[in-house]
Each structure stands twice: as C-alpha cells, then as structure tokens.
Amino acid sequence: MRRAGLGEGGSGNYVASGYSVYEEENEHLQEGLRAKVNALKSLSIDIGSEVKYQNKMLEDMDTDFDSTGGLLGATIGRVKQLSRGSQTKLLCYMLLFCFFVFFVLYWFIRLR
C-alpha cells in the first residue's frame, strides 16, 4: 500500500521501515484471524448439520409416539368395552394373563 509521503525515497524513508514492520504484523494478525474465522465457519456448519439431524430424529419420534398413542387408545377402548359388558370371565382371564406375564418377567430378571 502506498501512502502520501511514506513511499520510496524522499523524506519518509525513516518511516518506511517502521511501516513495513506494521504491514508484517498486520499480515500475521490477518492470517490468525483468517484461521479463526475458518474454524468458526466449520464449527457453525457442523452445528447446522447436527441441528438438522436432531430435528429429523425428533420428527421421527413424534410420528412414533403418535402411532403408539393411537394404538394405546384403541386398546384402552377395547378394555373399557370389555369391562362394560357381562364378559367378566374374559376380563378375569386377561388379568390372570397379565399377572402371569409379570411373574415370568420377574422370574427372568431375578435369575440374572
């Protein structure tokens, strides 16, 4: 860069040597700043891709929870329908089956 009175020759020779030192220092600082900017850029790109991945995962979980909620709602509706009717024998069988399943699970966990 040329500045008025600081160039080659003339009365600004004593300032030109100091000026080049400042230029070198500025270039060194500029390289450091460029490296930091590149690091921040790559970090922000990585954060963006991670956010996109997490959003996709959350959408998938939302879909799964919605389908599970529908399934549980239908099952509870059937249980309510069984309890309203005179099918108490079937309800007893269902309760015995649940107790049996819990007992078997308890037994498997206990053996470990």
TrEMBL record:
Ranges of residues in domain T-SNARE coiled-coil homology: 20-82
Name the PROSITE patterns on file. Answer: T_SNARE
Q: How does it sit in the membrane?
A: Single-pass type IV membrane protein; Single-pass membrane protein
Biological process terms in GO annotation? protein transport; vesicle-mediated transport
InterPro entries associated with the record: BET1_SNARE, T_SNARE_dom
Task: Give TM regions.
Answer: 90-109
Task: Say if the entry is tagged with keyword Phosphoprotein.
Answer: yes
Per the record, the domain of life is: Eukaryota
UniProt KW Kinase keyword: no
What family is this protein classified in? Answer: Belongs to the BET1 family.
Binding partners and assembly: Interacts with SNARE complex members GOSR2, SEC22B and STX5. Interacts with LMAN1/ERGIC53. Interacts with STX17.
This chain's function reads:
Required for vesicular transport from the ER to the Golgi complex. Functions as a SNARE involved in the docking process of ER-derived vesicles with the cis-Golgi membrane.
Protein name (database record)? BET1 homolog
Q: Please tell me the species this chain comes from.
A: Amphilophus citrinellus
